[in-house]
Amino acid sequence: QQQRNMATNRFPTFPSRMSLQQFKVRTNGARKGHSLLKRKADALKAKVRAILSEIYDVKMQMNEIMSTANFSHTQATHSAGDFNAQIISKVESPSIKVALRRENVVGVKILQFDKVDTGASQDSLLGIVRGGAQIRKCKNAYDQALELLIKLASLQTSFQELDEALRVTNRRVNALDNVVIPKLENTMHYIASELDEREREDLYRLKKVVAKKKKEVAIADAIRRERENNGHGAIQNVSTTGVIVDEEPQSMLQDMGDFQDPDDNVADIF
Known about the structure:
The protein has helices spanning 2-8, 17-80, 84-90, 132-241, 252-257, 266-269; strands at residues 96-105, 108-117. It is mostly helical.
């Protein structure tokens, strides 16, 4: 089963030395990327935990500040009467604005909100008759609540963006760890095994060629020695009988027939 998985879970490629080198480079790059993404995921986890803890603290402060602000508004209304309509009618431009900026956290650009005081306050003459102190106290309490709300919105936005980036990073880490790197390693093992098999085939072929060459050389040496021996015998025949033997004997009977007497009957020998 494991060999079947290794055979199917690989990249299609032609086994060669160049392909093996290319896949080695790709595997090293994938491992370095996995290490970097793993460290990025750890940093994002630490940042998310810190933001989550800060969100919890801000929400706990928000309960107390909003309670104080509502109580201050009740006191101001009791002292100065219903002043909400007067404030709304005098507003021409916002006294507080929210500025947006991007902050880079572990390679992730998150959105941050900042409070900007424009100075266009419309309550300078409000509460001169009665309840001015309570109105200013109520204003300061709601200013603190607004600042805390802006901070809470910034933290929650950062938390959502970092959480999404953390999920994407974890998916990439898991993909590299469980899919890409094993597939690259299986491809390298396949190429290495094919190259080893090809080398064994070449070595076996070379051995067969060398053995065949040795056999041909041995046969040629044997034929040469036999010809040399036959040539030496022909010279002896010339010295004894005066007949030059031009051809090699085709059989033992022919060889014996060259030395027998013409008057003898060959049939009598057998």
